[in-house]
Specification:
Layout: H1 3-13, H2 19-28, H3 32-35, H4 45-59, H5 64-68, E1 70-73, E2 76-79, H6 92-105, E3 109-113, H7 119-127, E4 132-137, H8 140-152, E5 158-161, E6 172-177, E7 182-183, H9 192-197, E8 204-205, H10 211-219, E9 224-231, H11 237-246, E10 250-256, E11 262-268
Parallel strand pairs: 3-4, 3-6, 4-5, 6-9, 7-8
Antiparallel strand pairs: 1-2, 9-11, 10-11
The structure holds S-adenosylmethionine (SAM).
Length: 269
């Protein structure tokens, strides 16, 4: 089977057609773009076997990112395993806004709480190399993955194990967070592959999904010099902006992700 046939073959068998390029590129050890540069090149028997194994696992409901052990976010390739949430494209809107703010203001001190794989912290550091980035999480295993990702991408960030701000000192120009925001009663409605494979600690929040926003809105002002960037669930804009207003934040904005859902709230001290 040549590369083009392999792409069609896997697109037909994977639950999401668009995953075929990722799976095949992984098997061949090349980038997605390179697949079609040599469409007639034949796969070896071992490569075909590896591709079939990926398709089989994916059809058992294991997310592709966990099967491959790596995923793509902004311009980075990140290691992912069951210790961290798979970075979502939805989160790129937050990164782009934070990067634009840092570039426009010349501010450089960044704190990313609830960092997981480190996707936000590392993409900010990659885009603004002289930023001084601290990333924290309550999960030591997630921090281990974030640390490997920093090393793999040659990016120097500081990692801290902390329950939100409890072990964070100093003040930051920018605070970013994509905290857990799924209400406990909404967990059962998530797709099975998320429920069964992604860490519950990364997903579920108390107080009807608002627990982390309440704690962040109350504590962030003492740690912030400039702007807060929060990812939110698509139905949480009103509640989160309300919490920020109550806590004295100014210039509160809501932005949408690429799918047109409310996804980002920003606020200034
Ligand atoms: C929604 S995930 C976000 C991960 C990553 N920032 C991203 O955007 O893909 C939330 C993260 O918050 C972490 N977390 C959960 N409770 C926490 C707490 N009390 N303090 C700090 N981090 C926490 C989880 O371990 C998880 O890595």
């Amino acid at each position: 089977m040549n590369r083009l046939d392999a792409l069609r073959y896997s697109a037909g068998l994977l639950p999401e057609e668009s995953d075929a390029g990722y799976a095949l590129a992984y098997v061949l050890g090349i980038s997605k773009k390179e697949i079609l540069a040599f469409p007639d090149r034949e796969l070896t028997e071992a490569e075909e076997k590896k591709l079939d194994e990926i398709i089989r696992k994916r059809n058992e409901g294991i997310p592709l990112a966990y099967i491959l052990g790596e995923w793509y976010f902004m311009d980075l390739v990140l290691k992912v395993d069951g210790s961290v949430l798979i970075p979502r494209q939805d989160t790129e809107v937050l990164c782009e806004a934070a990067i634009a703010y840092l570039k426009a203001t010349g501010r450089r001190k960044v704190l990313d709480i609830c960092t997981g794989s480190g996707c936000i912290a590392l993409s900010v550091k990659s885009a603004v190399p002289d930023a001084e980035v601290t990333a924290s999480d309550i999960s030591p295993t997630a921090l281990k993955t974030a640390s490997l990702n920093a090393e793999m991408n040659g990016l120097d960030i500081k990692l801290v194990c902390s329950d939100l701000f409890s072990r964070i000192g100093g003040k930051y120009d920018v605070i970013t967070a994509n905290p857990p925001y799924i209400p406990e009663k909404g967990f059962g409605d998530l797709p099975r592959e998320i429920r069964e494979h992604e860490p519950r600690l990364a997903l579920v929040a108390d107080e009807e999904g608002l627990g982390f926003y309440k704690r962040i809105a109350a504590a962030a002002k003492d740690r912030l010099l400039g702007r807060l960037f929060l990812e939110i669930g698509s139905d949480q804009a009103e509640a989160v902006t309300g919490l920020l207003k109550e806590n004295g934040f100014r210039n509160i904005t809501v932005s949408k992700d690429l799918a047109g859902n409310d996804r980002l709230v920003t606020a200034d001290v």
